[in-house]
Amino acid sequence: MLNRLLLCGSLLLLAACSTVSTPPTSSPADSIRYLPAAFSQLPQWDSSLASESLLALRESCRPLAGRPQWQAVCSEAATLDAANVDGIRRFYESRFVPWQVSDAGKDSGLITGYYEPLLTGSRQRSAQTPYPVYGVPQDLLLLDISAEQRAATQLVARRSGGNRLQVVAGKSQPGADELLVTLADFVIDSRTRTLKGRLDGNRLLPYYSRAEINAGKGINSAPVLAWVEDETELFFLQVQGSGRIQLEDGSFLRVTYAEQNGHPYKSIGRWLIDQQQLTLAEASMQGIKGWLEANPQRRRELFDVNPSYVFFRTLNSSGGGPIGALGVPLTDGHSLAVDPRYIPLGAPVYLATTWPLDGSPKPLTRLMHAQDTGGAIRGAVRGDFFFGFGTEAGMYAGRMKQQGRFWLLLPRGMTPVARP
Fold first, then answer.
1. What is the Cα gyration radius of the chain?
2. Which of 37, 103, 115, 304 is the most buried (most CB within 10 A)?
3. pTM of whole model > 0.90?
């Protein structure tokens, strides 16, 4: 969730298999099922394709083309005419098999939205631009751990270069130049691959929370990439995971997710609902901003509900969307953030949902591409729709809380596999 704490993920390795006649596959541990389907079963498939869908696939093919199962697909995709909608449709129908995805017996799930916001700022701090956009602090330490190590009581680690640590196998007590890591100090779940901490004597402790960072802890070693005018917009920049900052001379500075403090993402919208400050229908981005305008004295209290904090890096101000977890630019309206345990990054996903409009729901059916991940994106039928850049994109993204269904498209001869 680049987006909304869009944390970088890895490609889900896929196993070989058979054709549409194969029985559904499942993951008993997670109750994830993939049911092979026909393209005629996809709602509004015949009218859904646009040239942007092919452009998004070509972006996905940059990292996928070297994989044997994707070589022929990507080679043919590079030769297609983006204006030939019928030819593109025939290509997908001949090269891919759709698999309808369900989670715990449910074939629908939550679809939210994100976008690339625009902030106003400066390279210099001033009374008008007092809020810092931080790069990665030098004292933030990263320790990769395996599933087996996640179950341990404590580990011993040592530096392996830069801000990276590595586990010292077979030890439970640290020696000289080694650190003690007590797993109970950290919030760990099945998705935890890296502990993010700070040095305290010879112990690794969790890195500072948002409230602690806002109180001045840890920031002395963090570079400031820019200073911005609006603290609320800075918070939502962190939630989105990337954005553009317009400087005094009219130029734009693009920033994107670089690292995160290791604390779990907590929804301030949910907190406002629980505190009976907003109703569920009101808890959109626009509704939250309205509450903040009416309660400016409670801004920091609300923001500190979410202990997660994102650090950024700058990007070249070239065209295209922000870089997602797949490592390619996102395509407006055709890139989707997913849980890569169940939806492999790079794969097309046919989405059937509705537009976030007042009144009667309007169908939104589209061929998307799984090119991003997010800290809040958990589950097989859970997606975050990238609406693009600017005010209109933000309007849709902030209101998007729809139910939707997924069909995962894989090259013929491949079967989806759920990863623990």
1. 22
2. 115
3. no
